[in-house]
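Lecture 7 notes: from sequence to structure.
We start with the chain below.
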Amino acid sequence: MRGKLLVAVCLLLASTAQSIHAQTRMGIELGSRPAPLALEAVDGGLVDLPIGSRPVLLEFWATWCAKCRALHPIMIAAHEEFGDRVSFYGIAVAVGQSPRRVRRHLDKHPLPFPMLWDSEGEAVRRFMAPVTSYIVILDAQGRVAYTGADTEQDVLGALRRIVGAPQSSEDS
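Predicted structure tokens for the same chain:
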């Protein structure tokens, strides 16, 4: 009986580990190289993402997203530390919002980097964004080096690994 219980517990743990692993593999595959993409800026004009010329951080975002609001100070801190070495872009998804609504929101809650409008969902499809609050970081060669979603992401740690910046003593 004891052996059967041990086997059942091992099978349950293996199944749980597979489920957790499957849940953490969301969005575009790490190491993949997305094709070049141009999106409309919410302020007008077309923006070509500089994929493959320097690291790029993309935040899939919406005005109604509570998790995106929680990420706001993290994104500002990340831009303050890495804005000179990483191209940051917010990608406003075209679900439940309009460019006008996004502009009004940004007037009240500004971000220090460009906000792009994904009117046709091209960026959502290209990066396989499963939710808002989804962040993708591409390395300087244009490969996907990080993906994550939700409020508990270590965006600064990921950027430090990708850009090669030393960890601060507070992070150790």
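Points to note: The chain has one domain: 30-164. The radius of gyration is 19 Å.
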